[in-house]
Amino acid sequence: MHKDRLILVAFLFTFISFWFLLPDYAINIISLSFCNGLVILGLLLLMRAGLISFGHGMYYCLGGYAVAMTYNFLQIKEVFFLITFSVLAGFIVSFFLGFFVRRFRGIFFAMLNLALSMILFGIIVKSVSLGSTDGFGIKDLTYFSHTIEDEKRLNIFSYLFIVLLTGLMMMIVMNFLKSPSGKMLEAIRENEIRSSYLGISINKQIHKIYIFSSTLAALGGGLMVILIGHITPEDTAYWTRSGEFVFVAILSGSLNVFAPLIGSLFFEFIRSYALFYFPNTWQMIIGVILILGILYLPEGIGSIFNKRKK
Amino acid sequence: MASIPFIILDSLVYASWLFMVASGLTLIYGVMKVLNVAHGSLYAFGAYANAWLIGWYFNNYTEFEALSFLFIPVSALVIGVILGVLIEKFFLRKIYFRDEIVVVLVTYGLFLIFEDVMKLIFGTTSYLPYQPRMLLGNINVFSIPYVVYDLAIIGIAAFIWFLFNFIIKYTKIGKLLLSVINDREMSSALGINVNKFFIYTFTFGCLLGCLGGAVSAPMISVVPGIGVEVIVLAFAVVVTGGLGSVTGAAIGALFIGLARTIAIFYAPQLELFIVFFVMAIILSFKPEGLFGSKEVRKI
């Protein structure tokens, strides 16, 4: 148990020190992949219970819109409050949708979430008051009442904020997976009926992790807006985005909490370079990597670092 | 209320189009338990192939215009068979034993690859193969002028539905197929070549996807990215009707087609929203879809 925490601290320190070592563009990609990594971390929780959602872009979008809209309509510039709003948005929506979604398993769970995210996409795209396809932008922010004069979105504050918050979430997820509740997820995945005979309330557990993972996704979306400063429905709630998340989640595997972050980093770097060097065929490259990954790394990227004991 | 005949006609045409696209998807799922995301690119491939053939023909020849209808089945057949066999043999065969979601992701990867392949082959300019649609002209239905080509789509969809039912109910292949659907292992133990059935079904499903694209090419402008929108709509139809049920897909297409047309007539902002809303409502009452079968839970 202690070993994992030490690795986490070392992991965070490495990334904080990267601020001083790596060029700006690399830091930007790292921050973005941390934001997206939170969504993948949420998907990891669902994957532990044998579920996958093809609509986590919905919560990513909700979290992002919560930040952008509180900023624009309520004029709140304090990052701490903005993030609180995005977490709340994810929590409340997933709490109510959870009653509906928790009855489904397997492919239906995945597709129902896809439908819900497309509903959100449809609502946002067609309503002008929600910014339609243009979305919202945000400008200067304050970090714990410390105003940033520099116009640059990526500064030491936003970077630290993203990395440390991600680290905190990884810690929470790590502890959760080791708690009895977390161990139940594997029991549910292995055999739902047997575990319900053992006294686990399956639907309640699934509802719980659905809320947990959606809140993480919303937080990721909120952080993404703070980093990039703009949000559009096309980039967040559309199903191709959710497909990308599932893609990274499957490539990362669900063996440990580092895998989602590493998978996300890997994906963002590959995408940036593919986009840069092969602007016309970058999707093809990503598709090839996905298929190769599934064929040759069945347990995900995490399996390189952490061989499961049989 | 004068618009009711319009609504009925429009929703029938739209539902037929949806059914054409979704039937291949649901067939493949029913037999192989593979939810094929690449179906969207097959649709786009079919549309591109047909559009290219029609463009080439009308640029070079002026007589025998009716010949352009022949390009629809030809392009569907060629593209569907080539891609279907290719995908099944080289990708799906290796991962049948894996989880359903992993298989979905492999087809998603193929979808990404095909998106770029299409751009490389056909370029990014749009194709407008309108000629076949113009050839058939207009007709008055209940004193509404309507394009004959669009009405013909209803006929094609109905034909596909009859074909399915005929094959499954009255032919030996259909009976064998039913046994493969119900119990894969038992049927292979009884001497049915399940792999052969898989490859035939997958190819036939792909062919239907391409046919959907080829038929709709004259109605739309064929541009990159048409497959993306089609596949989510087809998913919605298939899941609403119950995965693996062709009749379910037909009924689901009717439901969604009607809801969307009503939305377009009375509240056009809801167009995209309503499709998935109908799906969510139906799933909340019948979690396995309209014609889906309840899964037997094994301990």
Explain what the structure shows:
The complex is a heterodimer of chains A (310) and B (299). Chain A has 14 helices and 4 strands. Chain A has helices spanning 2-21, 24-48, 57-74, 79-101, 106-126, 156-178, 180-190, 192-197, 202-228, 233-236, 239-252, 258-277, 282-296, 302-305; strands spanning 136-137, 142-143, 146-147, 230-231. Chain A has 310 residues and is mostly helical. Chain B has a domain at 16-224. Chain B has 12 helices and 2 strands. In chain B, strands 1-2 form a two-stranded antiparallel ribbon. In chain B, helix 2 (39-60) packs across helix 9 (194-216) and helix 10 (226-241) packs across helix 11 (246-266). Chain B is globular. The chains are: A mainly alpha (310), B mainly alpha (299). The A-B interface holds A 52, 100, 103-104, 106-108, 110-112, 114-116, 118-119, 121-123, 125-127, 191-194, 239-240, 243, 246-247, 250, 280-284, 286-288, 290-291, 294-295, 298 and B 35, 37, 91, 94-95, 98, 100-102, 104-106, 108-113, 115-117, 119-120, 228, 232, 235-236, 239, 243, 269-277, 279-280, 283-284, 287-288, 297, 299.
